[in-house]
Structures are given as structure tokens and as C-alpha cells.
Amino acid sequence: MVPASQYFPVEPERIQRGWQPDDAVVLLGTNLDDWRTIAAPQSRNHQRTKELLDRLTREQPNAIVTRYYKARWRMLLGDVEGARP
User: Fold this and answer.
1) Which of the residues 21, 31, 70, 76 has an alpha carbon 20 to 30 A from that of 45?
2) Is the pTM for the entire model greater than 0.85?
3) Could you report the per-residue pLDDT of 44-61, keeping only the tens digit for each?
4) Cα–chain-centroid distance for residue 77?
5) Is 78 left (phi over 0), alpha (psi -120 to 50) or beta?
6) Distance CA 65, CA 42 (A)
7) Of 19, 38, 28, which is closest to residue 63 (Cα–Cα)?
């Protein structure tokens, strides 16, 4: 058995190098498309979701997936009319 302490703490540079461009897409799918988020919005860390959405917006500003998750974010906050465009 290998103790987990052998791998921690993880340096911020190493974490940044491990980030892939589509990681935000996958994580936002869990945070915004999951039925549990719709049924129980308090079950998610909305600050983290917003950070992921901001990151996706910086990395893929014109992508359809960015527009989609921006609309889902607005819907989660109750702004259905703002999400329509």
C-alpha cells in the first residue's frame, strides 16, 4: 500500500499543468446539467461553478458549449428570460 501523503501537498504549478481544456466542460456538466442540481440547487458549490464558467469563457469564449453553460447558469439563478438568447 502506498500512503497518500507521498503525493501531497500538490504544487499549484503541477495542478495547472494537469488541467486540460475540456475539464471545465466536464465539470460544468456535473454542476449544471445533473438532475440533482435542478432538484436541489443548494447541493452544489455555486462559487466553484462560477469559477469554472469564467475559466471556460476565457478559454473558449465563442464556443457553443460556453453559450450553453452560460444559459444554464442563468436558468439556475432564475433568469429564464436572460437565458433564452
Assistant:
1) 21
2) no
3) 889 999 999 999 999 999
4) 15
5) left
6) 24
7) 28
